[in-house]
Amino acid sequence: MRAKAAGMHSKDCVKVAVRVRPFNKRERDAGSRCIVSMVTSSITIQDPRESQSRRSFCFDYAYWSHSGFTRDRGGLYVPEEPGGRYSDQDSVFQDLGEGVLENALQGYNATLLAYGQTGSGKSYSMVGYGPNKGLVPKLCDRLFQAIRENQDTRQCQVFFSMLEIYNEQVVDLLSRGSRTPGGLRVREEQQRGFYVEGLRTVPCDSAPQVEQLMEQGTRTRTTAATHMNANSSRSHMLIILQLKQIFSKESITKQSNINLVDLAGSERQRSSGSEADRLKEGTAINLSLTTLGNVISSLADVAVGKKVVHIPYRDSVLTKLLQSALGGNSRTVMIATLSPADICYEESLSTLRYAERAKRIQNRAVVNESPTERLVKELKAENARLLQRLSRLGQEGRRANDETKELRQLLTHNELQIRAIQTLWEQHLQEALKDWEQQYANITQERRMMQMHPYILNINEDTQLSGVVKLFIQEGEWDIGLCDSTPRYISIKGLGIQERHAVFRNEQRRVTLTPLAGSKVIVNGNSVSQTTELQHLDRLILGSNCTYLFIGFPSERGGDDWSRYDYDYFQSELAAAEGIHLGESSAGSSQTDPSLLAVFYDFIKLMPMVAEANQMSQELNKDVEFKLEIKNLALSDSKGHDLKKEIVIIVTAVGRKQVWMWSKTKFVNRKFLMEDAYQLHQAEKSRDNIAEGLSTAVLPRDKDPFWDPVEPLLLGSAHLWLQSLAFRIPLEEQLEVLGSEGTEEAILQAQLVPCTSTGLAQGEDDILIDPSELLGRRLDFQLVLEQCCGLRWIREARDRGVQIGFRLFDCSHPLYSPAVWHNVNPLLDHRVHFASLHTSQRLLDYLQSSAVVLELWGLQEGCTDLVSSLEGVRMTAEGIFIIEEAGPANPAPVDCSVRAQQDMEELKSVNSSLRKENHILREQLNAARNGGEGVRGRSVRPSCDAEFARSLKVFYHSMTSVRGQLQRLRRHRPSEDSDLLGFRLFVDEQSRLLRDFSEQLEQSVSTLKQDVAAIVRRKRERSGIWS
Fold first, then answer.
1. pLDDT at residue 690 greater than cutoff 80
2. In principle, which of 519, 635, 828, 987 could form an S-S bond with 785, CB 3.0–4.6 Å?
3. CA distances from 566 to 31, 572, 605, 713, 722 (A)
4. DSSP β-bridge partners for residue 40
5. How many CA atoms, within 13 angstroms, populate the side-chain half-sphere of residue 354?
6. What was the pLDDT predicted at 373?
7. Degrees, nearest 5: CA angle 333-336-341
């Protein structure tokens, strides 16, 4: 009854803390801006694209760990000034860890959750690094300190468990045996709730033992991640401390579970309807985190009084095990960690929203008393009643003796049970001590080896898993690879690792690495195939993504700071070798586009995943290649503004010459499905059920993550500027169609032809000097697509086709030309007639400032042609597309300013005056002609308007050539492997292009000036003669 009453009064909300970390190396190199500010417990985040867009959140605790700190001699990060705003590890523990510990000592279940994107500081806050211990080790220190301080009043037993959840499989990180196929099972019991069957629990009586077990679990986690090709940032790690307190005097046992949970990275997948994947996320990689979000949302709705029918605890392994922590019998704290960098804005905002929902959850915690101890209490109470009865019924003698005998037997039985429990604890403790002594001996041996030999140190994306595995290179020759059958062999496992992958030689205090045939070895970002001498702190990548740091002989080490060679350093080095330099994007500019930095960030993050996907494709004989590409790197919109850049993955079925373009989200999903197929292949291969080298691709094609139905592919685009239409000047262009990264895909011949309503081309007499003359009048023109030349898409495979897509003005859907197939230089001969029935200022502005973007779409055998959607499009019976209706249907934009209206009225007034002047001059000319003086002039002198129109036409055509020269200049770059001579040749070529551009521009402007001067001179002469 007491527990129930306690539960009625202990209804409390989940406590939520937010911690902001410093910039990491990549963010510093990218010149990132801090977009997060903090005042007491309130946090504000600013949208880097809109300075006025801010969101504020309030939490129970807020920790500023971004700036204002220094590193003392012992390596601890402390505030620069006493009382500074920087929150160190101690201040976080005092608020959060002490509360968790106090709740556990009182007998409550306690849970600490760490949430945030990968690299946001979750593991640093939970575990720490070096002398900066995190919440878990500090909690263990304080727990055993409290046990020692209270050992006179209670006896305490502590059990430690450590598990990992990856892809909905539970892995025991302390298991002595081999990994259970499919993971451990989660079961449910009425008394215990959900629990992991067969999970090893190790008794501990000191904090060093717990730290040793954590190191053992981390080593297992690192090895498993490498062998299973698992991404540790997508796994959840749970540490469970079971605390049992036996109060002898009160005859009470309090038992509490402390759950310390490091959740998987909460990367926000940028997805939209266009990125939908035909294969749902068949793996359960994201299931636990998604379900956790659904549980938190449902519980938050319950807290504000909404009616919720179902809370989906049972939908994932993680939420089953955390059921008591969320809305149940636990006192729970969540620490959400985030990066303040502008390139992480979306992920950080998502984390803050998630944490805001979590703080509404209400739990009902109770003090947990052991059922066995409650039974003892009840028996003692019963004993007291029986003794009172015996004192009253002492005359019955024999009957009293019988009852006393039964009571004594019962008491003896219970004492034996208590003693058995105590003996069991001692036995477990002794076994654990033996294991701990063996582990300690191994650690001592490893430290001795570190002082004698060079070695390679594993580097992992998760900093907590880096530096765990040390592979020593002793004197002599050592093979490294999958095989471990010989005594002089270093065994490693991972994607792309061969049976005999490479050879280390340690001779005369020199260490060399020799790759063997067919193996992939990268040293300091560059692929090597010959024997290479290793230097201290060289970076090695073996196979697709097994990363190691070479530590030289003890005499070479000195006081180097090895921590800067983290996983990001390896990937940035690889990206630099491919020409991607993250830091260069901000050179010379203090305001770098955050979206561009985010693209480079994604590029580096996806590089190892693409390497792994290629390796799995090779081992499974899929004949599919993956390549990273930056979409829209060299493309712009109809206004000439840069398009939003994003990472896409080009997928090529090499044998079939089929190509797909996958979004980042789709590729990440498919990558995990590929891992499932690969692990199935490895399992079957290990059972010898398949022949060596054959694939296990038993999946039907529609379930195969390496395959998709073919579909049209956007190859590139070209811009046809519309300014000439405002003057009714025809335009004929040869346009370069550029791919996403600036490569030339084709040459497109296109025309803009001003015409009559019947489609007849207009002549020079119809050219306008003032575009405003079009206002309120009808405008007809034709877009003519004549021919494509040099199609790279079809040159690579003849069974392909192309279409041209375009969209004009307010057209909601693109229009497409008919498909043409099997021809590198196809004739398109496609003509589309557009008309504006009542030309508005908005359309005129559009023509003078915009281009029609002509998109080149690639078709593949088996895919459907693109079809123009005529929904919402008005056409005449003659097939003319109406782009603007009569006046009332197209009112002037409502957001025009008063100033703009005044300018418009002034321009109209000037235009009216010029028209009157032109009318007077025409009357004077007619009068002169009628007088007979101008007979000769009538036959040889054209009108000034026609002369000016012809000059404008020449100028527009010459400027087209100038614009093309400018585009060539923008795309002209030196080759990545150019030497000094190559750079000199590039500079000479660049100078020539600049000279040609300058000459063309000067000649065009000079010709226009001369033509205009001649027209004005002749006009003055005529005015003087005929006035």
1. no
2. 828
3. 19, 10, 13, 38, 52
4. none
5. 27
6. 55
7. 165
Instruction: Give me the residues paired with residue 663 across strands.
Output: 648
Say what the alpha-carbon torsion angle 567, 573, 578, 583 is, to the nearest 10 degrees. Answer: 100
DSSP, res 642: B
Write out pLDDT tens, residues 472-484.
999 999 999 887 7
Residue 825 to residues 757, 793, 828, 861, Cα–Cα distance (Å): 32, 11, 9, 18
For tokens 């390139």, the residue is 343
Query: Strands 252-262, 110-115: parallel, antiparallel or unpaired by DSSP?
Result: parallel
Contact 134, 126 (CB under 8 A): yes
Q: Which residue has the tokens 């690579």?
A: 796
pLDDT of residue 346: 87
Residue 678 has, within 13 A of its CA and on its CB side, a CA count of 25
Residues tagged in the binding site annotation = 116-123
The DSSP line for 96-137 is IIHHHHHHHHTT--EEEEEE-STTSSHHHHHTEETTEE-HHH
Lowest mean pLDDT: which of 161-175, 313-327, 610-624, 911-925? 911-925
Which structure tokens are listed for 239?
A: 């540490």
Task: Output the known binding site for ATP.
Answer: 116-123
pTM of the model: 0.71
Band of pLDDT at residue 129, cut at 50, 70 and 90: confident
- Which one, of 480, 166, 95, 513, lies nearest residue 318 by Cα? 166
**Percent of the chain surpassing pLDDT 90:** 28
- Euclidean distance between the first and the last CA atom of the chain, given in angstroms as a whole number: 116
Where do we find the tokens 């804005």?
345
25 CB-near residues (< 8 Å, 6+ apart) = 564, 566, 568, 569
Question: Ramachandran region of residue 496, left (φ > 0), alpha (ψ -120 to 50) or beta?
Answer: left
How big is the chain by its Cα radius of gyration, in Å?
38
